[in-house]
Amino acid sequence: MRAFLSFLGQKITHWLNRERDPVATPMSDFERIRHELRPCDVLLVEGRTRISDVIRIITQSPWTHAALYIGRLHDIEDPKFRARAADYFGGDPDVQLIAESLLGEGTVIRPLTNYEKDHLRICRPKSLSHRDSQQAINFAISRLGFEYDMRQILDLARFLFPWTILPRRWRSSLFVHNAGRPTRTVCSTMIAEAFAYIQFPILPLVRSTKDNEMRLFRRNPRICTPRDFDYSPYFEIIKYPFIDCDEYGSYRLLPWHGSSDMLDERVLFDHAEPKSAKKKSRKKTKKEASDVDQDNYLIESEESELQRQRDPLIEEILSTENEVAEKIKEEVKEETGKS
After folding, report:
1. Are 13 and 105 in contact, with CB atoms under 8 Å apart?
2. Domains of the chain (ranges plus CATH)?
3. What is the pLDDT of residues 117-147, one digit of tens each?
4. pLDDT digit string (tens) for 55-89?
5. Which of 33, 73, 57, 44 is nearest to 230 (CA)?
6. What is the largest CA-CA distance in the chain?
7. Which of 30, 48, 65, 214 is most buried when burial is the number of CB atoms within 10 A of its CB?
8. Angle, helices 50-59/150-160, rounded to nearest 10 degrees
């Protein structure tokens, strides 16, 4: 029976970890993010797996995963923890590394390049000292090998659901002492515990006394989610969009290509088609293919009709914008020539 449950668990884990194909053009510039990262930065990831979809629904946030950037192996100053990290990684010492907890793998060290094609965001702890950053990294390394706590994800879902709709026996056990094994964790909990170890706040409870003194209380790290690092006032948010306004001198000089009157703009934002859907699409009959061509023709006809019916005021605004953009380009050229 135990062997069957283990086999079933592996199948479920494999199904939950299946990834969608990345979008053709990511929303963040990985190269700039890679050069900007500092040890002990928190990296938020908009995941593409099925377990990411579950976490996205539970937390109501696009950020479904968090990883702790630990730098390269030589950035870890303590020889004992550096050796432990090297044993778990076993790769090139010059590779940029992150510590994270993953379903099916537990707490591991992996190269930063694993998220090269994902939407990323840097959350940097404000005014964190170098000594404390090393202590937090050492704490994360000490958690290597811990299993992923799937029960905690279920407990978090039950904790965030309204209490009135769940029977008492189904309610969350997050606040029960030793509710789960002490050798299990999830991504955001592991990082929250690392910052709690150096007494750095994420989203503390703030209370005032009768004497108007402010007091902070640490939250339970088991209810920490990736979005908390994005929301926290104690972390700086660093974004590097794929197309940055600074590269063009002004947002007015961005490479806009007219305006879109598409009937369904979801194609601009949806992820790539799953492999299973691609296999099905190859089996289309000639009749189905001709129907698709006819639908595309109708869509193009409707788009051209929308273009013809465009409000003249919008046309005037667009022409004015083009004139202003040309003037800005000329001013930029003149300033460049003077310098």
Report:
1. no
2. 2-242 (3.90.1720.10), 251-338 (no CATH)
3. 999 999 999 999 999 999 999 999 999 988 8
4. 888 788 999 999 999 999 999 999 999 999 999 99
5. 44
6. 80
7. 65
8. 30
